[in-house]
Amino acid sequence: MKNILISFAATIAIILSTTNLKADDHAEQAYFNFQINICKLNEGRTMKQYDASFNDYLKWSKKNDVEVYVARQTPIYSHDDFNNSSGIDWIEILAGSHEVTGKAWDMWLGTKEGQKLAANWQENASCFVKWVHAYPIFVNQKDFDEDKDRVASWNWCTLNDGVEADEVNAQHAMMAKELEKNSNGLSGWLALAPQTGAAYAPGDFAHLAVFKDIESYMKYKESLASGGWRGYREYQKNFATCRGEELFTDIELNNPNN
After folding, report:
1. What CA–CA distance (Å, rounded) separates 107 from 66?
2. 151-177, pLDDT tens digit by residue?
3. For residue 205, what are the β-bridge partners?
4. Mean confidence (pLDDT) of the chain
5. Which is nearest to 213 in space by CA: 253, 182, 181, 249?
6. What is the C-alpha separation between 67 and 96, in angstroms, rounded?
């Protein structure tokens, strides 16, 4: 069953510790807030200018006790081609508790300092903000402790007719137990459920899988090529239909525990 995995990535172990959740045998029952900023650099602006603006936000969040975990992802293998382009330059993930996120947004929108930072942010990039609930399923803590530079894979899926979410959750729990025996290069796996601003999400939920590097990702892909594809097909037949993976770099920009 370990080869059934469909992936989508994020730094789960660090996020769990940041939000006071634990990656234990019941990790799949935990959850936290996941804000996704889908961004494109504005014309005439540079990433150096954007980074300066974003660093001002990080300093502000620390000063006002609304600091969250932040990672930035940029496409490596995307679904884009010459006829179909998402227009995305990068994705930022801000993960934390719902309480801290709510407080941060009230200060961002309701204070002069927050409004000034927001205006500067929008001057440098155009970003669409989405909210999802994140449910961790599997974590290899050792991998997350070793590096802040990873790769992440996304795969959006839609439940098959007649299949209930609890059935899929039970299947994921079985798969996670197999991963504890042999992770096949996988460092972390969580499921994402769209909540706000997600009317055009490409599926009912997404798999997010994290790998230490592309070599580890290719180890996982080799397991599919050597026979694991049968499990993948069974998953799509019996539980959910998935559109296929996209691979991104995944760089940690801020960790409240450091």
Report:
1. 9
2. 999 999 999 999 999 999 999 998 888
3. 157
4. 86
5. 249
6. 8
Distance CA 105, CA 131 (A): 12
C-beta neighbour count of 237 within 10 angstroms: 10
Structural domains of the chain ordered from first start: 2-254 (3.30.70.100)
- Nearest CA to 21 out of 7, 35, 33 is that of 33
- What the block records as the tokens of 222 is 């080799």
The whole-number average pLDDT for the span 224-229 is 85
Strand 69-77 and strand 186-196: the pairing is: unpaired
List of residues 6+ apart from 12 with CB closer than 8 A = 23, 136, 139, 144, 188, 189, 190, 210
Q: Which of 212, 216, 217, 199 lies closest to 155, judged by CA?
A: 217
Res 254: pLDDT: 93
Alpha carbons 221 and 106: distance in angstroms, whole number: 43
pLDDT 10s digits, 95-106: 988 999 999 999
Phi, psi of 89 (to 5 degrees): -90, -40
Q: How many CA atoms lie within 13 A of 16 on its CB side?
A: 25
Per the CB < 8 A criterion, the answer to whether 184 and 226 are in contact is no
Distance (Å) of CA 79 to CA 85, 196, 244: 8, 24, 9
58-98, pLDDT tens digit by residue?
Answer: 999 999 999 999 999 999 999 998 998 888 999 999 998 89
Can you tell me whether residue 169 is helix, strand or coil?
helix
Residues 6+ apart with CB under 8 A from 20: 97
The DSSP symbol for 201 reads -
pTM of structure: 0.84
